[in-house]
Structure formats: C-alpha cells, structure tokens
C-alpha cells in the first residue's frame, strides 16, 4: 500500500494547495489512499461539511481534524453522518464522531485512520496511550487490517516521539500534526513504523502558522491580544508525507517528505 498524508490545511490557501494538486499526486505517486488533515480549513479554525465534501468528492479517502474540530458548529452532526472523518479518539466517547475509522480502499485493502490529542501544553483530555491500547486490541496488522495510520495532534515533540516509539511495530505510520511547522525527521523506526514529528501545514508560509503576521507581531512585541487573527491568503504550499507499506506485514518500508510549492 502507498499512502499520502497531507498536513494541517489552513484557510483558502491550504485548501487550494491540496485540491489543485490531488490529480498530480495521484498521477505522480499513484497512492492507494490519500488522507488530509482539515482542522483549520475553514478560515483557519475548524472545518465545515461543505469543505469536507469537496475534499472527499475530489478523491481524498479520509479526513482528520484536531483540537479545533468543534469550532464550526455545523460540523458536529456531520461527524456522525460521515464515515470518513475522525475527531481525536481520546475525547470523551459520548461526544459526536469517531476517533478511528476503517476505510475500504478501491484495491480491496482496508486502512484504519486514528487520531489522538497530546496532553502536554494542550487542553485536558483522556490518556492517548490508554485510548490507543484499547482500540488496537481489536486489530492485527497483516491480519484483519492492512495498514494503520495514527495522527498525534500535539504541541510537544517529546510526546510525539515517545508515542512513536511506543507504537513502533504495532501500527504502520505515526504522523504528528498541529504545530504547522514541518520537521525534517521522517524515518523508519526500528520495528517498522514510519514516523515524522510534524507533517507541516498546507497553506501560506509567508505568515505565522498560516495567519497574517501583523497580529502575532503585536502579541509578541506589545503583549497586546485585543486584535483578531486573520488567515493569510497568499500562495499556498502543500506539505505531506508519502509512505510505502508492506502488504503482508502492514509495516512501512519507506517514508519521504512531500513538498509542492
């Protein structure tokens, strides 16, 4: 299996960077599955059902979100309606949506897409390790599931690294998101799990994490927080990863960073 995963989509620039390149991605890399993180796709905060449908209709197989998933109110019922979108697994189980979804791919293979929130420097949530351990008891790579992608949406690099090693050999890919800054450490861990600390964002990089620079500078230099963040709408760049996964074992054989400017 070949998997393409695109990092946090931020605003219109991010949407255009991904949507305008889906055909290119499929023609060039010939992935069996394309997964995109859309948690900042709607004006930089959250995502709407209409945006989700556009990605899915254009050929994306599954969508991940993050801690901003609740910020567009009309997405909440959509989380229950759509079977190809996940919100973090370690939110309370009673909340709308699922933290893991099985995607049946056109080639007959089955991909499990999972997302958890980190807890360092983040809002209070349930333990991501316990949530993943409970979920993964039902799956066996190379058995009832062909590949498992785990997105850890977190601030701390140490927490992401620790989870990568904790899951090494149990899942196909551990990919970090949330910081909007791509890291240069994509690699195969010793037991066959592909790993990157942060995939990076899809959006305008002439910005501060996808937002116009004026307000972040005010907050930095003047400690003035009365202004509002505005999404930067310059030309977008797509950051992602391409991962090859062994069909028999369900473990990764190759990972590389993907950049389309």
Question: How would you summarize what this structure contains?
Answer:
With 261 residues, the chain is of the alpha/beta class. The chain has helices at residues 11-19, 22-29, 49-57, 75-81, 128-136, 157-167, 214-221, and strands at 2-6, 8-9, 33-37, 62-64, 100-104, 110-117, 147-153, 173-177, 187-188, 194-196, 201-202, 238-245, 252-260.
Description:
The strands form three sheets. The protein has a six-stranded mixed sheet, covered by helices on one side. A five-stranded mixed sheet has the order 4-3-1-12-13. By secondary structure, the chain is α/β, with parallel strands linked by helices. The longest helix is centred in the middle third of the chain and has 11 residues. It is built from seven helices and 13 strands. Strand 12 and strand 13 form a beta hairpin.
Write the layout of secondary structure elements.
Elements: E1 2-6, E2 8-9, H1 11-19, H2 22-29, E3 33-37, H3 49-57, E4 62-64, H4 75-81, E5 100-104, E6 110-117, H5 128-136, E7 147-153, H6 157-167, E8 173-177, E9 187-188, E10 194-196, E11 201-202, H7 214-221, E12 238-245, E13 252-260
Parallel strand pairs: 1-3, 2-11, 3-4, 6-7, 7-8, 8-10
Antiparallel strand pairs: 1-12, 5-6, 9-10, 12-13
What descriptors fit this protein?
single chain, alpha/beta, 261 residues, globular, six-stranded mixed sheet, 23% helix, 7 helices, five-stranded mixed sheet
């Amino acid at each position: 299996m070949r998997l393409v995963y695109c990092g946090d989509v931020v605003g219109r620039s991010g949407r255009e960077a991904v949507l305008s390149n889906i055909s290119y991605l499929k023609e060039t890399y010939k992935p069996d599955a394309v997964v995109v993180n859309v948690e900042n796709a709607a004006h930089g905060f959250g995502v709407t059902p209409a945006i989700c449908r556009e990605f899915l209709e254009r050929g994306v197989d599954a969508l991940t979100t993050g801690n901003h998933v609740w910020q567009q109110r009309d997405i909440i019922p959509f989380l229950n309606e759509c079977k190809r979108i996940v919100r973090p697994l370690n939110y309370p189980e009673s909340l709308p949506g699922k933290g893991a979804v099985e995607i049946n791919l056109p080639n007959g293979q089955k991909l499990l897409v999972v997302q958890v929130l980190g807890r360092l420097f983040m809002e209070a949530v349930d333990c991501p390790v316990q949530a993943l351990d409970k979920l993964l008891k039902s799956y066996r790579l190379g058995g009832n599931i062909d590949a498992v992608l785990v997105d850890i949406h977190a601030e701390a690099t140490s927490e992401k690294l620790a989870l990568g090693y904790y899951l090494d050999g149990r899942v196909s890919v551990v990919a970090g998101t949330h910081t909007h800054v791509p890291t240069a450490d994509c690699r195969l861990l010793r037991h066959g799990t592909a790993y990157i600390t942060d995939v990076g964002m899809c959006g305008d990089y002439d910005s501060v994490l996808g937002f116009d620079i004026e307000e972040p500078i005010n907050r930095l230099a003047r400690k003035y927080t009365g202004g509002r963040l505005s999404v930067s709408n310059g030309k977008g760049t797509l950051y992602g990863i391409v991962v090859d996964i062994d069909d028999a074992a369900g473990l990764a054989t190759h990972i590389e960073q993907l950049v389309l400017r």
